[in-house]
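thought: fold this chain, then report.
action: predict
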Amino acid sequence: MEQLHVLRDLAVIFAGSLLVILVFYRLRLPALPGFIVAGILLGPNALGLVSDPHDVEGLAEVGVILLLFTIGIEFSLSRLREMGRQILVGGLAQMGFTVVATLAIGLALLGGWRVSLFLGFLIALSSTAIVLKVMTDKGEIDAPHGRLATGVLIFQDLCVVPIMLVLPFLAGKAEGGVLGLLLALAKAALVVVGVILAARTIVPRALSEILKTRSRELFLIAVILIGTLTALATAAVGASLALGAFLAGLIISESDYGHQAMAELMPFRDIFISLFFVAVGMLVQLETIWAHLTLTLIAVAVIMGGKTLSAAVGPALMGYSGRVSLLAGVAVSQIGEFSFVLAKEGRLTGLLPDLLYQQFLGVAVITMLVTPFLLQGGPAMLDALERIVPLDRLLPGFRPRELAPVHEQVKDHVLIAGYGLNGRNLAAALRAIHAPYLIVELNAQTVRRARAEGEPAFYGDATREEILRALGVERARMLVIAISDPAATRRMVRVARDLNPELYIITRTRYLIEIPELTRLGANAVIPEEFETSIEIFARVLAHYNVPREEIERLVREIRASHYQALRPGARPRLMLPGTFDALRQMQVERIVLSENSPAVGQTIAETQLRSKTGTLILAVRRGESDVATPEATFRLAAGDALVVVGQPQQTRLAVQLLTGKGAA
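observation:
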């Protein structure tokens, strides 16, 4: 009966979650906070439909382990090396300032340094799942603040490992004191080294042999076995199963099969992590939040404001503008899912009292629920803040003097905003025709590299009026916006249009919904990536069908001139080409074999009157082992000849009757 009880609870959880997530979908909110709300509603502290949340905690813990496993797969060792500076500087500044500030406040209010330090660790962590999901949906994951936020999240995920090792010592449950802590860290380091060696040698060969069987089931079992053995190895040296799961993910990521493993595990991870968020919601006591509502709201405001500033320090130190730095800070200002795991462990070890634990849960849940709204309204809030105080004065950073805007009087030039792949390609094209251009970029490292290559690149935020003036936007011929930040793109178009009404502005966008707004703000040409890819595909297909190049180019021009109206969702594309292409669409090729009794045997092609009577053409005749392409009118047909004729369906049927004396097969 125990199994039936658990199964009933799972049915209630999935049914309640389904309803809540549908509501969240209608409100355009991410699903993960919805699972927390579902847990609050279904749990013993609200409707009581699930009376004992401990029944699902085991499954929820599996979700955390799978989450760490997949994070290890996504954040491979090579990717960690590529993003090294953003991860180290941005993450270290955010974690360091947050932990130190929380420790100072905790010492003043709580008195104990152990609890204060532990709270600092809990508050410093952010929600990888929510932030990456929301930013991916908004198309901002490749924007400067998106990359910075991702670097901070990676650093935080890596910090979970040492925090788990330090937790027993903070709780006073570990033996050996400082020496014991160093020994535990040394054991963990040995495990990491062993994992790296296995990732380079054993695992790729083993997976290669398994994949030769072409069995998805066997591959999935092998991946799970690697994760299980690695987790058991870390547990054997005194570390956690979660650490082992993360290291196992790194092992898989270093092989050639990381993407396939990710695809196989993703459905399981999503289900179990959803159960984890539901279980967290069940633990929240609404009466505790209500009894300390003022204190809870103050704590939410202080934590999110403080984390925003602490996360903005690192990007400012790397030379990013105040706006980008604060946008990255807002993105990671909530408390994350791993904080719930650590808080539960802290409660079990006696480090967190029950009341403080419940207050922390309430604050953490509210920060996660608020995050989607902050990410949506963050640019507007920063616009309002910038009217009061310039953000670059609030976070000036350390920017080299040689990256100051240009002072020479360049005229009739092209301004390139953003020096990513599109910006580099455009610069190469302009350089080939000797057209003057200037590059403005927010990444100081990118500017240094471009300068070293001889490019006229300058550091600056092109959404700011003074930067555009310094780059001579009033004298420029064209502005090309090649960045991935929708909010910054809109602001850039508006400011540039105000400064130079005659400027020709070209901008890219990922989504169709951006086109009307960017056009209204003053963009002359908006190039949506999705539709340009569609145009390139169908242009190549039509060329393969021998449609004249001028007809394809005319069709492409018409589509672009109508702002891609024919390709918009909900509209069935109706693309018209003149000439015979509509007829060609319905043409078919028929193979007709002449028998000894066929009327056409012994006649020339002209004598059969095939063209005048049926409208079909003979493309080729196969006689024995030889082929005759486009035979002459005087070619005489013989028994056994295989004729390849082309025409519309009704024409080929008539041709079969005329040549063979029989109906078409």
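thought: worth noting. The chain has four domains: 2-388, 401-523, 531-582, 586-660.
final: tokens above.
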